[in-house]
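Help! Submission page says 'invalid entity' but I think these are all valid:
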Amino acid sequence: MAGNTFGNLFKLTTFGESHGVAIGGVLDGCPSGIEIDLAAIQNEMDRRKPGQSAIVTQRKEPDTVEFYSGIFEGKTTGTPIGFAIHNTNQKSHDYSHIKDSYRPSHADYVYDQKYGFRDYRGGGRSSARETASRVVAGAIAKQFLSQIKINAFVSQVGKLKMDIPYEQLDFALTESNPVRCPHPETAAKMEEYIKEVRKEGDTVGGIVTCVAQNVPIGLGEPVFDKLHAELGKAMLSINAVKGFEYGSGFEGVRMKGSEHNDQFNQDGSTKTNYSGGIQGGISNGMDIYFNVAFKPVATVIQPYETIDKEGKKVTTKGKGRHDPCVVPRAVPIVEAMTALVLADYMLLNRSVKFE
Amino acid sequence: MAGNTFGNLFKLTTFGESHGVAIGGVLDGCPSGIEIDLAAIQNEMDRRKPGQSAIVTQRKEPDTVEFYSGIFEGKTTGTPIGFAIHNTNQKSHDYSHIKDSYRPSHADYVYDQKYGFRDYRGGGRSSARETASRVVAGAIAKQFLSQIKINAFVSQVGKLKMDIPYEQLDFALTESNPVRCPHPETAAKMEEYIKEVRKEGDTVGGIVTCVAQNVPIGLGEPVFDKLHAELGKAMLSINAVKGFEYGSGFEGVRMKGSEHNDQFNQDGSTKTNYSGGIQGGISNGMDIYFNVAFKPVATVIQPYETIDKEGKKVTTKGKGRHDPCVVPRAVPIVEAMTALVLADYMLLNRSVKFE
Amino acid sequence: MAGNTFGNLFKLTTFGESHGVAIGGVLDGCPSGIEIDLAAIQNEMDRRKPGQSAIVTQRKEPDTVEFYSGIFEGKTTGTPIGFAIHNTNQKSHDYSHIKDSYRPSHADYVYDQKYGFRDYRGGGRSSARETASRVVAGAIAKQFLSQIKINAFVSQVGKLKMDIPYEQLDFALTESNPVRCPHPETAAKMEEYIKEVRKEGDTVGGIVTCVAQNVPIGLGEPVFDKLHAELGKAMLSINAVKGFEYGSGFEGVRMKGSEHNDQFNQDGSTKTNYSGGIQGGISNGMDIYFNVAFKPVATVIQPYETIDKEGKKVTTKGKGRHDPCVVPRAVPIVEAMTALVLADYMLLNRSVKFE
Amino acid sequence: MAGNTFGNLFKLTTFGESHGVAIGGVLDGCPSGIEIDLAAIQNEMDRRKPGQSAIVTQRKEPDTVEFYSGIFEGKTTGTPIGFAIHNTNQKSHDYSHIKDSYRPSHADYVYDQKYGFRDYRGGGRSSARETASRVVAGAIAKQFLSQIKINAFVSQVGKLKMDIPYEQLDFALTESNPVRCPHPETAAKMEEYIKEVRKEGDTVGGIVTCVAQNVPIGLGEPVFDKLHAELGKAMLSINAVKGFEYGSGFEGVRMKGSEHNDQFNQDGSTKTNYSGGIQGGISNGMDIYFNVAFKPVATVIQPYETIDKEGKKVTTKGKGRHDPCVVPRAVPIVEAMTALVLADYMLLNRSVKFE
């Protein structure tokens, strides 16, 4: 209720501050008997981790997951999967610029207002480091959902937009470049642009697009827990996200019903897919696709004016090694959250279709 | 879990099909001692109800709420507020065009796939009629949240966009025209356009913008239950919604961190508000604002080809009285869901700040 | 969260005060396609209702259920089942003895302390009238669980205890007498005793025993949500209940492990059943049986001293028509809550055993 | 939903098998700014741990808690408290007697039926080792609830019952003897008896009584989530518990209303306390007291006949070091669960009394 749990039946609870002893989580509700490929989990962690390329933060964190329970002889037992990732980087640093003043567009100020007290080393619980636990759980969800294909990729960086329908992309190319854009020419431009921005000590936003294919018909609950509502919440819970749209999205606003309606083929599939694979909140078997907008990272390596705890003006400057653009590392996080949502509805759906 | 409940502490459960005996709900968790203005509730109902102007559906439904419990001598008692709205319009109609074939971009097909059985009269549970129950509960939430001001309005219809910052608008004008756009000149153009579209038997999408002012600092939970994540889910749970963005939203993607960061004033407020009143998932006391994208209504009064239950092609045509554009009637629904989210966090927040 | 919802997937939310307009509820999560026998539901209501025999309260309440949604052409649709029971008896009475003073061992005092305000007509939400909504939902749960047999009966009234193992009883006799004790000789003594107590203007406690047979193996979750823990909570949530025990119960305390252990037969059943059909919180296919202890009803028709809102001593006397012993009418309520618990675990269990 | 979470706002999720890498949990919702005494937590762990006296199991487990998050500079931060207790004892043992055959009255059989697969080393998730995580969280809850006094003690072992009203006991004596019975003469007899039973290779049941004093008025929700219903569920979720009663309990059944009603004093307290400190599900400020019945431990060190996975008869014998009587070590667990329930209602109650 303090909001560290996601999901109803396939349920992840996370803990941990960026500079505490460890972060981790408990994944409850994963069915028994699922074979777990630990290397595949670590691979997802490596896609998210800092220091993997020249355009992301140069911090070094090995992000090695220790599993404590719920997996036995290579398979899930149906009991909760407890895991932790020890922070190797939490030594004493100089946090005075964070402790005593509030970084603009960070959570420092509201944490102090809400809790009256905060772990000022790093971003505490508001740090994107928390998402590492989501990637662990999402990687298990992906293995549970082996028949569903989830592919996220970067489709926009700043004003550089890849305007190619996802059906024409080869998702195998997503990992071929550090930006994680499956269109190599666009990826090269994006990479160049991120490097420029980094040189300025600045940051820039971007969009991650995600496509889920081979999703069974019937996932989603028709009123408050519509499939796209839960996907939206999942995406908006990722740090730095400012918007979510699925199917025709914000562009659909400009269309007329006669154009926008997806006509049926005789097998129940549709000729177009403005619906984005979801009708009335329920998956219809077509591809689910959506866009997630990320703002530019707030930490800029430039001097700025701000206030301290007493409301006095101070001038300070971002320090440390931060991402100039968050979207390349956000790709596995978007996939993980998508997998968690779909896994939850897979379990829930069995309950509804009772014979 | 079948998704008919919204909220955790201020919690609404709804029931009812569009053509059943009644729709209604139970609002649990509303604190005791709140004075309830029944006329204000009915006023919100009237803003949502069909037949209120020339540009909405001409169905006549009085939408009179009966309260069954939880209010005594004009005040809430802290016990659940049960209410119902009897359907006056559920007589035997000819539903054969819905019963035997699937309307494109409606939920008919997925309902049959998911439940194996459906109440084919009207849209059943997927009908926007369900939102009347949300408006009842939202109207109570507004009275509970009397210090917070929630104003939604139409900011776009099809390609007609009102490009005026909300700070320059007079919200008192929203109800001055049937479109519910607070800029009279734009409203007139939108009204004209909706009338044209209706004449064609077609429909068009739009955007509702919502602004919540005077929100206390500290609402929202920092990880999965970020304030904007729950607002996003709430909005995406409204029929026909395809997208949600708050603060800088999708436009923020194109900005650099140095422009996007909201610099502090000495009192903790910020000079700009790209954050949209929320930092790290927690309200910071600035205005919260967001956009909600609605697709064009699927029911068009034009002939179309579709399939029947056996997958055979049939040609049919939309009937009945439907909205050519959903956004004017969506305004009170967006406000209601906003109020429900904020009321829930108000209660939850007290728990966190414990002394 | 204000506690008017029971269950996770098969979920009942109730509303209504004893003297308000109506009581009722929403049953969410009932699978689609279950044939509903409305007469069977009304029959359960009649078992619970006042005025059915000489040893229960003589109030007349027809307790007719109106269904508003979720049932179509005689079957559940999978959507929420909304229902209400209008109070026919809520006319203006003289409530001054309740309004101005606190009845001993009633909830009046704590309601005023907790909510600062209460609907003083009748017991409000603390009245056993609320259980009528549980009986409606439980009757639907029974129809969903048609293969499981749930039989509750009165096994003790005051000091009169029926000491016969349930296996030797004919449950068909439970309804043969107004006490609902399936052993006619004991029933006759109990009836006599209750009549005596009533003449004195007094009340007496009792025990309801419940047996659930043909329960599938595997219901229950092994840690916090053990099957017997949820059954215990369900029973303890019924008005006037003071204790719950299952299997060997409090007597089991006196036994040694070597006697108490249930030895296996070769088919996995056990020779004895001290476990009460549940091992480690999970049903094992044997009969589930448990006892529920009810205190004597607090309303006695004798003069008593109490305090008013200002803490001044007042002498007053119970009025109206009350049950001298609650257990005969509690039998269908115990069965209803048992059915709700089992239905919830039936749905949940499908999620765990995933293939 | 797979039942490894307890509580709504003060919420514990546990993980871990008895012979896996570690057990542990996440406590979410603990308010910020609570000073944490780590030694007091370890003290509670030591009261529960094996090997502490001659009448409990002689296994050696240091049960050292590692905290991973949520505590900073000696105080809670309001973020989730993650913790783990590494299993030091999980080396390769001979588990063939558990792996291939089912121990009577254990969860082995139902686990295999439910999950199709189990971690057969030790009891896995059904082992009482899981309760160590509850004691950690309960110890934190006690510190949060510093004004409330929670005292549990052993009141019965086998047929040896201490028949002294709790008001006449000195709780300081509970820890003076290994049985944890605050009446030294009875304690000595109980200790003797447990030693005898252990010599026979047998086990025996017992009762733990718990008293919570200085509980604020108003905790508990009046319908399904009555305070005693949640306490009952909490107790019944502890391994080996067969029954729960509060206030007058099963004895209250034999009383008449005129005797059982608790008459008010002028300050709102009551002259008697058959209600057990709870009226209508809500605390009334009087002492809350209840009994928890524990069956004899199933593992006896005597030969017994059972079945293997194929249903063939086998003769085997319990091994290892087990408790002859579980109640002395159950005392801190009962206190921990009581603290968790009260902490949750403390947070929830703030929401209800809103000004």
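Support: the input was valid. A stray whitespace character was the problem, and the output above is from the cleaned input. Chain D has one domain: 5-352.
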